[in-house]
Amino acid sequence: MSSEHEHSHEEHEGALAKFEEVKDVKPSRNGEFVGQEGENFYVALSEDEVYALSPLAYYIWSLCDGEHSVEDLAGKMSQDLNVNPDEAKEVLAIALIRMSEVDLIHMPK
Questions:
Q1: pLDDT, tens digit, for every residue of 55-101?
Q2: CB 63 within 8 A of CB 74
Q3: Do β-strands 32-37 and 50-53 pair in parallel, antiparallel, or remain unpaired?
């Protein structure tokens, strides 16, 4: 059981470190919202490439307007979702990394 806890602690530390690396970046969303079915929000990058996002992932994707920094987004998330700032930073960093890996989010250098 403790190894799971250690892993999640390491993941937590890694996500916060990643947040610090990208906090001044102004991410922008790619793709187009094409609909919702149940709990899934569908975003298409092309006719052949459609992603189903959870409500939280869709919320984060929709915040990425290219105008606000990652730090701004974390503050908005913390306020909107009523979570502590570190939790918002961690969730945001993980979501941005995953969505940027599949080009749903553009993270300018």
A1: 999 999 999 999 999 999 999 999 999 999 999 999 999 999 999 99
A2: no
A3: unpaired
Structural domains counted in the chain: 1
Q: Which of 54, 105, 59 is nearest to 80 (CA)?
A: 59
The residue segments making up the domain with residue 43 are 2-106
Report the CATH number at residue 89. 3.90.930.60
Q: Measured between alpha carbons, how far is 92 from 61 in angstroms, rounded to an integer?
A: 10
- pLDDT, tens only, 41-59: 999 999 999 999 999 999 9
Rounded to an integer, what distance in angstroms lies between the CA atom of residue 89 and that of residue 78?
8
**Under a CB-based contact definition with an 8 Å cutoff, are residues 15 and 70 in contact?**
no
8-state DSSP, 65: B
Selection from 71, 57, 88 nearest residue 27 by Cα: 71
